[in-house]
């Protein structure tokens, strides 16, 4: 089941003992092959140096294989919390160690989503210039299942992405208001005035509680206006509630 937590059958200490023994045997065999000679005398450092050399390469190989496994887990629907738990670290630690498992970029938008599943994942366009908020939104979405998340940092980049031939049509646009070049207010007016784009649900997610911003967003036909909570857990719940309603509950127009 995608996203299901990994629960080991043995304790971390038992896992470490088994892993140490297996890696030790492998390293000793490789060190002997590397030396291509009988075991050196006890006072000769050659054996220890060969073992150290092999262990260093095994460490690098492990890191490469862990990266591949993290990508595979993300593609299968696991989020950073599950990936971190499998390695005995927090979700923030997993995100720092393997950034970008769920594609978001501050540069020119590209269509290379890294999360896939047998059933087509939902496509979400996030228009947000705050990198910290973007990562929190990405993380909150990933906990609910496979999402192809593309992040752009302003309205101009969003329109370039949406109007690029062959670009998948988003199931949902999550929009901040305060951004450079073209802000969210102006982008919303363009989206809802465009015959090809106006039916895509747009949720404004912003720090602003100003009545003029709320009224202006709904006057420009935003589908919802959500204020970003300060509390981290409340922020995640707010994002997940948006996701749950617009991607799971609401009936979306056909492309």
What percent strand?
Answer: 5-15%
Number of β-strand runs: 5
- State the helical fraction: 40-55%
Low-confidence stretches: 104-118
User: What is the molecular shape?
Assistant: elongated
Through-space gap between termini: 29 Å
Number of helices: 9
- SSE topology string: HHHHEHEHEHEHEH
Taking Cα atoms only, what radius of gyration do you get, to the nearest Å?
24 Å
Summarize the structure.
The chain is an alpha/beta fold and 255 residues long.
Write a concise keyword list for the protein shown above.
49% helix; alpha/beta; 255 residues; 5-stranded parallel beta sheet; 9 helices
Outline the structure in words.
- By secondary structure, the chain is of the alpha/beta class.
- 49% of the residues lie in helices and 10% in strands.
- The chain contains nine helices and five strands; from the N terminus they run ααααβαβαβαβαβα.
- It has helices at residues 12-35, 46-75, 80-86, 91-97, 131-142, 155-162, 184-192, 211-219, 232-249; strands at residues 122-127, 147-152, 172-175, 202-206, 224-227.
- The protein has a five-stranded parallel β-sheet, with helices on both faces.
- β3 (172-175), α7 and β4 form a beta-alpha-beta unit.
- α3 (80-86) crosses α4 (91-97).
- It is elongated, with a radius of gyration of 24 Å.
Topology:
Layout: H1 12-35, H2 46-75, H3 80-86, H4 91-97, E1 122-127, H5 131-142, E2 147-152, H6 155-162, E3 172-175, H7 184-192, E4 202-206, H8 211-219, E5 224-227, H9 232-249
Parallel strand pairs: 1-2, 1-3, 3-4, 4-5
């Amino acid at each position: 089941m995608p996203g299901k937590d990994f629960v080991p059958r043995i304790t971390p200490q038992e896992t470490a003992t088994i892993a140490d023994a297996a890696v030790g045997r492998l390293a000793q065999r490789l060190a002997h092959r590397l030396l291509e000679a009988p075991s050196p005398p006890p006072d000769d450092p050659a054996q220890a140096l060969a073992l150290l050399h092999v262990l260093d390469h095994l460490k690098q190989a492990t890191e490469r294989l862990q990266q591949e496994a993290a990508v595979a887990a993300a593609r299968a629907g696991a989020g950073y919390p599950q990936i971190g738990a499998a390695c005995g670290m927090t979700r923030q630690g997993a995100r720092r160690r393997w950034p970008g498992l769920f594609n978001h970029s501050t540069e020119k938008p590209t269509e290379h989503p890294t999360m896939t599943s047998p059933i087509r994942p939902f496509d979400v366009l996030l228009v947000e210039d705050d990198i910290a908020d973007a990562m929190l939104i990405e993380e909150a979405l990933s906990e609910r299942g496979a999402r192809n998340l593309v992040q752009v940092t302003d309205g101009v980049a969003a329109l370039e992405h949406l109007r690029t031939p062959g670009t998948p049509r988003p199931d949902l646009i999550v929009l901040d208001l305060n951004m450079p070049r073209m802000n969210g207010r102006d982008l919303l007016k363009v989206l809802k005035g465009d015959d090809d784009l106006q039916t895509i649900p747009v949720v404004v997610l912003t720090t602003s509680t100003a009545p003029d911003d709320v009224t202006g967003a709904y006057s420009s036909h935003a589908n919802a206006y959500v204020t970003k909570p300060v509390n981290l857990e409340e922020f995640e719940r707010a994002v997940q509630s948006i996701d749950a309603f617009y991607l799971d509950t609401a009936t979306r127009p056909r492309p």
